[in-house]
DNA sequence: CTGCCACTGAAACGAGTGTTTCAGTAACTC
DNA sequence: GAGTTACTGAAACACTCGTTTCAGTGGCAG
């Protein structure tokens, strides 16, 4: 009856944190319990005990990744409180372009692709959720009247597309200058 | 000495074609020789004989996928020959948004993420190559003088970002109207 | 001291993996 | 007919996988 994922214990949070750092480095694709356990000083037995199954562990890791995303979302929302859409986009791009975030963003993309490939797997809904979350964030930076119009929806969808499209380019080429210039070019037209 | 991937034989092309159709449906992530072979009326032995290894097969599949991409690239280039950047982008989006292409584009995204996660794996360079190919296509739709400037590079990088960002949104939400409106919104400003 | 509880180690289980070995079969060349 | 070439089937090999079984820890409550 035990051995499932109830309220997270202290040990569970600690191991999740270490596993998360491991996954950000190595990706989700060929994640395997034995190498992971060895790297973070644990054992498959314990991971299975704490998270119920490998699937449960992956779910926990993904939700941990979303926590990172949320943390930035909140920070970005407060920093540019009252700012217009352009300033939110600019602040977001600055965060995306920072080198230390690169592995995290690669993991994010992997989870995104995963949730599309296997809609019923451990990463189900991941892609859909991030789209909704970010659109909601951008909506808050729009004037309330404009926000509810179709054109307002198109405007923030476009803003999100520019950010994510440029991110795809950045992750593949590493070309900060060109991708930043593209984002700036988008922003310099009202 | 034999059993490697030399000049593609007739049988090899036939099986590659069937395997490709299988992979477009099932993804690359948990591709496995025995189920694949069973589905396309072959055997692991034969696939290994014809492609040398599973890695060789995956490489062949990815290059087959790129052939699909190239086919569209060429068609798009001829159809809108002499057209401006906006018309090329519009034609491309029409192709991306067509329902039958959805599984292919999901596979494309999976390969893209793969090549970022494991830069030395079977899909090495995939992301980088598609970015370069598409940027080159868009460049041909720009006036020769403008094309070589930094602003020209930023303009086509932005165009590509809009297309791929909107594609990410489309694949996750399936919302054709909103994503199309976003692309159109981008196009309606010179 | 007793019982409970969260946690852990060692080893095994059964299934699935890519790959290899061995033994062919059909077709085409000389 | 002999030899070469391209292809194929059945079975085994050596592994890794997630998961389970069994047998414990150490700590804290009654």
UniProtKB/TrEMBL annotation, chains A, B:
Family annotation (Pfam families): TetR_N (PF00440)
Biological classification of the source: Bacteria, Bacillati, Actinomycetota, Actinomycetes, Streptosporangiales
Record keywords, A-Z: DNA-binding
HTH tetR-type domain segment(s): 9-69
Coiled coil: none
Protein name: TetR/AcrR family transcriptional regulator
Residues annotated to bind DNA: 32-51
Superkingdom field: Bacteria
PROSITE patterns found in the cross-reference section: HTH_TETR_2
């Amino acid at each position: 009856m035990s051995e499932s994922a109830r309220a997270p214990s202290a040990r569970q949070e600690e191991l999740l944190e270490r596993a998360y750092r491991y996954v950000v480095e190595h990706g989700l694709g060929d994640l395997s319990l034995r190498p992971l356990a060895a790297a973070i000083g644990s054992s498959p037995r314990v991971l299975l005990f704490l998270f119920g199954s490998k699937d449960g562990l992956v779910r926990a890791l993904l939700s941990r990744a979303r926590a990172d995303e949320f943390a930035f979302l909140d920070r970005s929302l407060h920093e540019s409180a009252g700012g217009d859409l352009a300033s939110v986009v600019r602040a977001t791009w600055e965060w995306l372009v920072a080198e230390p975030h690169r592995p995290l963003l690669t993991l994010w993309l992997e989870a995104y692709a995963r949730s599309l490939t296997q809609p019923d797997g451990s990463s189900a809904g991941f892609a859909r959720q991030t789209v909704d979350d970010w659109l909601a964030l951008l909506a808050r930076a729009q004037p309330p009247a404009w926000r509810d119009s179709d054109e307002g929806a198109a405007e923030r969808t476009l803003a999100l597309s520019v950010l994510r499209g440029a991110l795809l380019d950045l992750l593949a080429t590493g070309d900060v200058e060109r991708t930043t210039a593209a984002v700036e070019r988008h922003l310099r037209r009202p």
